[in-house]
Amino acid sequence: MTIGILHTTESDPGSGDAVNGYFLRNLNIIPHVLVDPLTRQVWHYAEPGETTKALFNAPGGVETNRRTGGVYQVEIVGRAAEVGDYSDEWYQNLKSTLEDLSRWADLVYAFHEDPTRFSFAEWSGPLAPIWYRHSNVPENTHWDPGTLDYSRLTAALPAPDPEDPDMKLLDETTKGWTVNDILNWTIEGVNKINAKIDDALNVTPTVVGSADLTRVSTAALLAELVRRNGSV
């Protein structure tokens, strides 16, 4: 089975453009993906199943980059010793990207947090299709991703704030509705937006402050439908 390997670039957050240029000049050490959570930039260099060379591989011993089953490698723009102190927004951006990459590479979104390096037998044996650390890989000496805080990558989204104006609007509008009422109203609203896509795109920035709908709460989107469509 394919496993994922997380690296850190040992450069400052936001330096993804420079790191990308470096990789393009040094294809012999390129990963599958480079992620800069600060700027939300993602560079794809290779498809899952293709071999990249971000891991050191000594003569003899075991195969690292060419491990049986495949190794999907992601470089994160940041420093191993400092990454644990990065902002919540940085972690939310990384979490969103890694969730997408997990689906893309057929990995389970879970992490092997123990930094201990595997023996040759452990590395070559069956491993769960999850994310591992560069520090787990035999024949390598790096300790990245170091202080990466996995609890912040797996934390559930906070519960909606009942005092949020969007939540109050939803509560007032949908009071007494049945499940079918909600489903029918939601489908109607989605159909209206699909029918007027240009208008919907013009409204999006007022809802989210950007064009990235993946970072909008369900409550905010439903509240926008309430504003547009009124009651059932």
Question: Can you tell me about this structure?
Answer:
By secondary structure, the protein is α/β, with parallel strands linked by helices. It folds into two domains: 3-154, Peptidoglycan recognition protein-like (Lysozyme-like), CATH 3.40.80.10; 165-229, no CATH class. Helix content is 38%, strand content 10%. The protein is built from eight helices and five strands, in the order βαβββααβααααα. The chain has a five-stranded mixed beta sheet, sandwiched between helices. Strand 2 (33-36) and strand 3 (41-44) form a beta hairpin. The protein is elongated and about 70 Å long.
- Tell me the radius of gyration: 22 Å
- How many distinct helices? 8
Regarding quaternary structure, what we see is single chain
N- and C-termini, Cα separation:
49 Å
Which regions are unreliable across 5 or more consecutive residues at pLDDT < 50?
A: 203-214
- What is the residue-mean pLDDT, rounded to a whole number? 84
Give the beta-strand count: 5
What name does the CATH topology of the largest domain carry? Lysozyme-like
CATH level-4 homologous superfamily of the largest domain: Peptidoglycan recognition protein-like
Overall tally of domains: 2
How would you classify the helix and strand content by structural class?
alpha/beta
CATH class of the largest domain: Alpha Beta
Strand order of the largest sheet: 3-2-4-1-5
Question: What is the second-level CATH architecture of the largest domain?
Answer: 3-Layer(aba) Sandwich
**What does the largest sheet look like?**
5 strands, mixed
Silhouette: elongated
Query: Helix coverage percent of residues?
Result: 25-40%
**Order of helical and strand elements:** EHEEEHHEHHHHH
